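About this split. The held-out portion is used to measure sequence recovery: a designer receives only the structure tokens and must propose an amino acid at every position. Recovery is the fraction of positions where the proposal matches the reference. Here is one held-out target exactly as it appears in the evaluation file.
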């Protein structure tokens, strides 16, 4: 009788561990899927921020004194390179 109880307990314990393993794997897969979505969202937000900065830089460079300053910077860089050659 004692062997039957031990066997029953062992089988119940193994079934519980198997169920727990399936639940943990499903939870881990769920977390991975949500992390992938989060990474995609972060990537999209970074791209939007970069596009906004680029638009602001283009707007500044084409309006007002930005174009002249960029021209002066370019001239200095080219002059510096020519002087070193």
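Reference sequence for scoring:
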């Amino acid at each position: 009788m004692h062997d039957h109880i031990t066997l029953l307990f062992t089988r119940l314990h193994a079934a519980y561990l198997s169920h727990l393993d399936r639940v943990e794997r499903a939870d881990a897969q769920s977390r991975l899927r949500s992390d992938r979505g989060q990474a995609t969202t972060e990537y999209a937000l970074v791209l939007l921020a970069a596009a906004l900065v680029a638009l602001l830089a283009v707007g500044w460079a084409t309006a007002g004194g930005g174009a002249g300053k960029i021209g002066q910077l370019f001239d200095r860089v080219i002059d510096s390179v020519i002087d070193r050659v």
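Annotator remark: Residues 48 and 54 are 10 Å apart (CA to CA).
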